[in-house]
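FORM 7B - TANDEM STRUCTURE REPORT

SECTION 1: FIRST PROTEIN
SEQUENCE AND TOKENS:
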Amino acid sequence: MGLALDGLSSGLGTTALINSIMQIEAIPQSLLKSKVSGTQSIITALQSLNTKIAGLAGLATAASKPDALTAYTATSSSDTISVVAAKGATAGQLDIVVGKLAQAHTTVSDAVTAWPETTLTITGTDGGAVSIAAASTSIDDIVSAVNAAKAGVSATKVAAGTDVATGETLYRVQFSASETGAAGAFTISDTSVPMTTIKAAQDAEATLWQGTAAEQILTSSTNTFENILSGVSITATAASTNPVSITVARDANAATKVARDLVGSLNEVFALISTKSVVTTSTTNGVTSVNGGVFTGDSSVRSAKGSLLTAASMPVDGFSPSEIGISITKHGVLEFDATVFGAALADDPAKVESMMQQIASRVAGSATQASDKYDGTLTAKITGQESLAKNLNGRIEEWDARLENRRATLTRMYSGMEVRLSALNAQSAYLTSQLASLSTGPSK
């Protein structure tokens, strides 16, 4: 900024005068800045809406899957058996008796102070033998060698008292199969240390239709039986002689949640649009002004809402969505009646599944059309607004340079005026003094 010469000769506040002029000169730029602010508000609101609709698209796509409503829950009549129903499960009931639990083969050596040999052999049920070679006869080295061999057997050193004759500490080595089941059985050979089997390898056994001509025994290397009922996993924690009833039924709550979540997500979108479309009036100095929200009159937003509302409320194969608890109110929002939905699901599951699949598919299509990151209608709208904001900011920058030059011009002009007035004042003072001297000179 140049040197200020406020009122040096003219008595004017030139800096304030220049600032006032610049305020007027900057009005076009201020209007541009206001427009940028409004555009940015639109962009932010559109991005928020686009994110919500994209989330709706994902939710609706999942709800449109053929198995979206085919969730089942499984229960057991005893706490000794737990049941889990996965996708693919079907309704059914079965009595089961778990006579044996699976267990891992466990062998324990006699108590020794050191292993007599540095080698031993582990042989599995398949006849495969693994030779173990330890670094020394110490119990620790034997244990380490077994564990490093990855023979499907782990070894553990266990204190076993003291040798009465020598006073040395005695140890046993416990050999345990890495996995439960009969296939995990093993033998220890090539050693002079006696071995005792503590637990023999054993499969779990479950009996179906016990005591009837159809009685069937099933085995599992673990305590879990898979797919005795389709998609159902049964895990036993204790053996029993009494039948345990397993029941698999449709999970109405899970199916209801799918429908409720879809309607809820739609209403979140509609609520955001309504909030951003509110028209308000205000009165200042007797003048009433009407102001619309950022979405007021926006055809892209209006089209997206209409498309979603139509997708959710249109009939499906001649049936109204209200028959499964989905209805539209006079305020243009959706309502979900869980009681109606549950009754319809119990009465005709196939019909409800088909209707939900088609409604969700239509909603997913409409939501994707609006929010697709490449060619969605709202995405295109956002891109256009961002381009507009960029263009406006470029014009604002041009005005910055223009106003800076204008201020410099005004500063030079008023500074020059002050200097010129100073010179004229000096000349005037000189002439005045000269005239005064003439009028007071000697008389003739």
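SECTION 2: SECOND PROTEIN
SEQUENCE AND TOKENS:
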Amino acid sequence: MERRIPAALDDYLFDLNGWLLLKNAIEPALLQRLNQAFDDFPLLEPMQWWGNAQRRDYTGDTGFELHNCVEAGEPFEELIDHPSWLEYVRRYCGEQHSYVEGLFIDECIASKRISGGHHPAHSGGYRGALRGAYGYRHGVFRCGQVNVLAALTDIGPGDGPTMVVSASHKANLPHPLQGDYAKGERMDSLPGAEPVYMQKGDALLFVDGLMHGGSSRTNTGERRVVIYRYGVSWAATRFGYVYSEALLSRVTAERRRILQPIPPNLPG
């Protein structure tokens, strides 16, 4: 696919709302291979390892979530520097025009959710972690983390679409009805939240400081997405995952620079 470059309108809407919907971001052939990879996932218990990937469900309701999924096969490697969003994340969270310019993948997750599953509302600008902070100063974006959530299945009403509270990445006050994330409250009717419906192949790009979550899936079947969370080059993975030498040695130089922007500096 041709490399997409964020336009002035993209920058404006990302700054205003905190998210963008990238239509037809993943080509059909890659979509097919990604879905086949999902079909081939083994049955894993929570926290069980599969090679250098691990099932690590955020809550009991979020469904099957395979972390470090870039280690799960070649189709996932193609997403590291996918041309539909690479220039977007470079601009928004790549520390452009600084001495630490570059990207890093903080988390990458393959997610399957069935009927009844959901993800509680979380994040938001109020007392948000610096890791997901939003910033724009002196003509450059300074985001701690920008997420790309790519749909491998159509996600419409009843399919558990991601919900966002637009502009909440700049909020100075807490949402009075957000509730306690630890209690697992559902955000289906949260005031101000809107569902983002997607066709398979679309990608939702948003700053992690935006309040977001997954509405309840009521339909049968599976909601399949992959989530790649990009951050600054000097970051470390949230849960301490490292990339295997086998992966680092076979990917392209461009992909390796994203997976390991700062190689280990060892004696000798």
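SECTION 3: OBSERVATIONS ON SECOND PROTEIN
The chain has a mean pLDDT of 94.
The longest strand covers residues 103-113.

SECTION 4: SIGNATURE
Preparer initials: ____
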